[in-house]
Amino acid sequence: MISTTQLSKLYQQACDIELHAFKPGNVSIYSEGHGMTVKDFQLSAITSAESITNLNYSLGEKIYYAVKNTREAVGCNTNLGIILLCAPMIEALSTMDKNANFRNSLAHVLQTSTINDAHWVFKAIALAAPGGLGDSEQADVHSEPKITLINAMKIAENKDRIARQYTTNFKDIFDFAILRYNESFKKWGDLNWSAVASYSALLSKYPDSHIERKYGNQYTQTVQKQMLSVHEVLLNTDKPQQYENMLSEIDNKFKQAGINPGTTADLTVATIFVFLAQDRLRNS
Length: 284
What we know:
The chain is mostly helical. It has helices at 4-19, 38-52, 59-74, 80-95, 102-111, 115-128, 149-156, 161-167, 171-188, 191-205, 209-215, 220-235, 244-256, 262-282.
């Protein structure tokens, strides 16, 4: 089991690494945008860390109070997706036996989620007001839930990639993104650029839910094509830094069009968190 203090550090480190990764269309130290700053995200990570790692909170409470603390600190939705993804992993890591399997423990957390967890998560989503899950008549986040959190996520999974992680035991992370991260880190030894590699791999393969909620499939092929080109050059280079100009050009195009792959950025944070957590488990 990893201690609360260690989990808080891992969570904040994952958020920080993602901010230091040049992710076209998304906020990073290279380029802010969409009315949000790097400082907003840094403050969000700090203020949400205490609640998301609070052992006295249920899964749903972790999510709600982390979102509430963020909202009070920065006044906008910077990290709902990050919190939704990291909270069940933190819950699993804080309760699993020493020799247990991380992903199996995560599956247990997801499958045993309750109606009360759904209650708190619905409140969190309503507070963050991102759109998406609350549009369903079966699971309106402005009403009291009658189903468990995992069942609510099943309703949303076809239009929300984060909900899909709940219903597939984080398949996109464990069966795809973390493999790309590990491969890149082994090659470059750089946490930040490995995050860029995972981000580009995810965005070249899967449509971004945040973009599609806003624009439908208007930009889906364009974004995937652009990020496939990034993915391919990163696969074949020993010096990813030399492609900063390429990333900058794509970043400018995306931001001028109002394209923000926010869901993919959230999945990238989750991927980094898994990498850091697995490393910590191996060395504990």
